[in-house]
Amino acid sequence: MEEQKYDVFVIGSGIAGQTVAETCVKEGLKVAIADKREYGGTCANRGCDPKKVLLGATEVIEVSTNLLGKGIKDTPALSWKKLMKYKKNFTSPVPESTEKDLKELGVDLYYKSPEFLDEQTLSVEGKTIKADKIVIATGFEPRKLDFKGNKYLKTSDDFLSQKKLPKKVTFIGAGYVGMEFAHIAARAGAQVTVIDSGKRPLKPFDADLVKELTKYSKEMGIEFIFDATITGIKRGAKNLKVSYDRKGKSEKLKSRVVFNTAGRVPAISKLNLEKGQVNFTEDGIETNDYLQSKTNENVYACGDVSDKGFPLTPLSGKEGNVVAINIIEGNKKKLEVPVTPSVVFTLPNLASVGYSEEEAKNRYKNVVVNFETASSWFNAKRINAPLYAYKIILNERTKEIVGAHLLGPEAGETINLFAMAINQGMTAKQLKQIIFTYPSWSNDIKSMV
């Protein structure tokens, strides 16, 4: 078997993996990278970027529907086929462009998933690879659901690449992906059902705001089935038949297609980590503060696959940079994660940063909770937005902003101002003193605190 030797071998070509490879090769190290799928990673090829392209079209549907009869005569029709073609303008160039950039830097490319043979040895493409340092940046993959007929399930990849949107669509799982896709599909004209084993969607987010979003989603026509356990899927002549247990009763529904949106798990099953002496849990590869494997000092992990990771692309790049520095200079840089915002790109957006109400009450002696529905505010009324609400949490003693939760148009943008305020330790008074453009969503935040 042919043998190759590298200073650094990176597994995974998303933002985290690219950052490590590019930084290390520029420092004169001999670097290789491998990916079993298209180069460029999940976000650019089959995740957040194409999802936002689809969202853009449905934003037009949402705004025009809300303004129907108020200056807008007709709601535009959405062509799923043309939307998919438009999406390819963003995704199709990514693999070739990523490969070209890496090759020009002098990085060797491999196109299959490696397997560990020992602590510093990999097998890939029929070759034995020796590497001083191995970096695992393989990201997440869909969680496998164990029931009869699970072979009929489609994934998020399938949703973002389907040429035709079926008339009836079901999503198993009401997390980020399930809720975002449900909103896209419903506005594109599909009959949508969301099934979840929990009592509500979006468990990590503020319960009061999620309640408002769920109510609005139902008004859009999305059907929710909570406290349900899927027991099986069978294929019929035209439809899939989904069986589930709920409240002690067995029930069924029919759907043209069923998507598994029940969460994602670290993509490590094919790596043979045991042979590499790399310990892992369901949260990912066990790493120290330097993102180095706790059980194999030759291995680092960054991005979603690390147990220190969060499923956020900007953080993946930051982690990749930490790993690269520690490989080049020795373990000198620890991962420091600022207070980080997160967004569910439903329409309206649901966004959050900092402590939840419950977390804040457990941490501080007294807190101020500003919770209000703001649909009567000018910015919401001017576009006839049906839903605009917020919950802002202050430390009562210092008046510092410690948590912000927004539901409304452009919440995914506005939450960044709160992220900046919380990271800088700003008080409500300091925020109110800033001059923002008016009338703007940004200016609204002064009234929220």
Layout of helices and strands, plus pairs?
Blueprint: E1 3-11, H1 15-26, E2 31-34, H2 41-46, H3 48-66, H4 80-91, H5 93-105, E3 108-110, E4 115-118, E5 121-124, E6 127-136, E7 140-142, H6 156-159, E8 168-172, H7 176-187, E9 191-195, H8 207-220, E10 223-225, E11 228-235, E12 240-246, E13 249-255, E14 257-260, E15 264-266, E16 280-281, E17 284-285, E18 299-301, H9 313-329, E19 342-344, E20 349-354, H10 357-363, E21 367-373, H11 378-382, E22 389-395, E23 401-408, H12 411-423, H13 428-432, H14 441-448
Parallel strand pairs: 1-2, 1-6, 2-3, 6-18, 8-9, 8-14, 9-10
Antiparallel strand pairs: 4-5, 5-6, 7-15, 11-12, 12-13, 16-17, 19-20, 20-23, 21-22, 22-23
Helix pairs in contact: 1-9, 3-4, 3-7
Instruction: Report the C-alpha radius of gyration, rounded.
Output: 24 Å
- Main beta sheet strand tally, sense and closure: 7 strands, mixed
Q: Which percent bin holds the helix content? A: 25-40%
Number of separate strands: 23
Structure class: alpha/beta
Strand content: 25-35%
Distance between the termini: 65 Å
Oligomer description: single chain
The overall average pLDDT, rounded, is 96
Shape label: globular
The parts where pLDDT drops under 50 for at least 5 residues are none
In DSSP terms, counting alpha (H) and pi (I) runs of 4 or more, how many helices? Answer: 14
Keywords:
14 helices, 23 strands, 449 residues, alpha/beta, five-stranded antiparallel sheet
